[in-house]
Structures are given as C-alpha cells and as structure tokens.
Specification:
Elements (H helix, E strand, L loop, with lengths): L3 H5 L7 H15 L8 H17 L2 H8 L22 H5 L22 H8 L24 E7 L1 H6 L3 E4 L5 E4 L10 E4 L13 E7 L5 E4 L2 E9 H6 L1 E5 L6 E5 L8 E4 L14 E8 L4 H8 L15
Parallel strand pairs: 1-5, 7-11
Antiparallel strand pairs: 2-3, 4-5, 6-7, 8-9, 10-11
Helix pairs in contact: 2-3
C-alpha cells in the first residue's frame, strides 16, 4: 500500500480530526455500494480503509512515522525489493498478503449493507471501532426458541392458589406456584425451560386457563354462590353447610331471612395482585316445595299478618 498519508490526502502532521474527516469523505465516495460497476473504486476503498486503520491507531501511527513498520503494518525489512514497505507486488498479484479486490465485494448489494450502520460504527456510534472497516459487528449468539404451554386450572385451585404440576417438553415435571391475581390469560415465564440454542436456552411461556365451576362464579376477587335454603330455614333460621373453595363451612341463617339476601364469608375468595384476598358471598335462594299439598302444609298457620306488597307502597 502507498503512503497512508498520501492515500487519505492529508499532511503528516494532520490531527486525528483531520484524518477522520478525510476518511469519512473518501469512504462515502468510494463505498462499493455506490460503485458496483467500478472495481477500481472497491480497491481504492480498501486502501483508504487500511490507511485509516493505521493512522487512527496512535501506536501504529507513531511506529510508522519512526519507520518501524510499513504501510501495511508489517515490520520494516532492510532488504527492499518485493518485500519492502510498499508490498505492491503481493497486494496486486501474489499469494501472500494482499488487499481487497473487486471480487471481494461481490454479493454485497445495498440490501446487504446499511451505510448508516457502518458509518455510525466508524464515527462514534458505538457498534464498531475505527479498525472495523467494512465488517459489521457480530450479533450475539441466538437463544433457543421459547416453548408455549397452556395450563388448565380448576376454579377452586386458582382461588386457593394451589401449586400445579406441569410436564415440560423434555418430559420433566415441575410444581408451578400460581401468582396472585391469577385469571384466564395470565402468562407465567419459566426461565431457561425452552429450546436450547447457541446463546443459551429459551424460556417456557405458560398461559393459564381457569376452568368454570358448576356453582361458583367470580366477581372481581370475590366468589359468589347461590345458596338454596328451605322455607323453614328462612323463617326459623338455621345452621347450614356451605361449600367454599377451601372446603365446606357452617353458616348461620338468621330467622326471617329472604331470598336475595347475601351473607359474607371473609377471606374465601381470590387473592388479588396486591396480596389481599376477596370474600365469598352466599346469596340466599328460598326453594319452595314443588308439591302443592306439601307447600300448603308448610304454610299452614304461618303469616305475619301483612301483605308483602305493602313494602312497595301498594
């Protein structure tokens, strides 16, 4: 390669800023993407890049100025000839060290190189150093693909946040702790439980589906239940067994209770994202005997002496 100062068109006492400015101008002008039909421009681009690589390195520039290395960065040889600092014969036709030729840039079209990426990296973009030349920074090794799972959870298990056993794609089973606020559509990430890749394993992505229940239903973080009771239990009061998401409990029905009245069981609902747990609301539903004779027998002698409609003002 010729004198790097002459290649960049700068004086030997040029500052770093002058060298960078000269290189940037020439690199944009000579870049192969802009000179696809001009092989000489590609060779010139290679020379310009190599000259900038040498002069932008303070140590190499100082050694070159002292005559310790040649323009290609090789130790200076005292014997001259084809092995001298210019090394032109090797670069243009030999099988030893050589620069870039037009063939080196075949296949690198505009779709393969982002000029903005290259020059950002060369001049402070942070993705490539000044010595990178045309080389784009290597991306990090790709992780393996994520694996998606769908986990069906019973209503009572979701409300009680019971651990769920899940079988992974590799046949292993793990116990999965449900998060507060779990509901249908909740996604849980299992780090490193996906497919293996050069950059490590991907993750397992578990999507939760909370199954419906035959008589429980969710209302925010509360659980609602329609509780059937007899007429006798409503009139006289009683203690009845009530199902909850954590098992049956005894509930006291006050005398004179009406259909539609809700009784609250504290802390028997879903746990919210804030860690607080909702309640269970049991709505009373008086069930009358279907046999008219049985109904008449039950109602015989019972009346509070005033029409129910009087509560509506009629």
């Amino acid at each position: 390669m010729a004198d790097p100062y002459a290649t960049l068109g700068v004086a030997r006492e040029a500052t770093e800023k002058d060298i960078k400015s000269a290189y940037r101008k020439l690199a944009k002008e000579l870049h192969p993407d802009r000179n696809k039909d001009n092989p000489k421009a590609a060779e010139r681009f290679s020379d310009v890049t190599k000259a900038y690589d040498l002069l932008s390195d303070k140590d190499k520039r100082a050694r070159f100025d002292r005559g310790e290395i040649d323009a290609d960065g090789n130790p200076a040889r005292p014997f001259g000839g084809g092995f001298g600092g210019q090394a032109g014969g090797f670069r243009n036709g030999g099988r030893g060290q050589r620069g870039f030729s037009a063939q080196d840039f075949e296949g690198f079209g505009a779709e393969g190189i982002d000029l903005g990426d290259i020059f950002d990296g060369l001049f402070g973009g942070g993705r490539a150093g000044p010595s990178a030349g045309m080389r784009r920074p290597q991306p990090p090794p790709r992780r393996g693909a994520d694996i998606r799972y769908r986990l069906q959870v019973s209503f009572v298990d979701a409300a009680a946040m019971r651990d769920q056993r899940i079988t992974l794609s590799d046949g292993k089973t793990i116990d999965l702790k449900l998060p507060p606020g779990v509901e249908t559509g909740t996604q849980m990430r299992l780090k490193g439980k996906g497919e293996q890749g050069p950059g490590g394993a991907g993750d397992g992505l578990v999507e939760i589906e909370v199954l419906p229940h035959p008589f429980f239903r969710r209302d925010g973080n509360d659980v609602r239940l329609d509780l059937p009771i007899t007429l006798d239990e409503a009139v006289n009061g009683a203690k009845v067994k009530v199902p909850t998401v954590e098992g049956p409990v005894m509930l006291t029905i006050a005398p004179g209770s009406s259909s539609g009245q809700s009784l609250r069981l504290k802390g028997r609902g879903f746990t919210g994202k804030n860690g607080q747990r909702g309640d269970q609301l049991a709505t009373l539903e008086i069930v009358l005997p279907s046999d008219p004779d049985e109904l008449a027998k039950r109602l015989e002698g019972w009346s509070d002496g005033r029409p129910v409609r009087s509560r509506l003002g009629v």
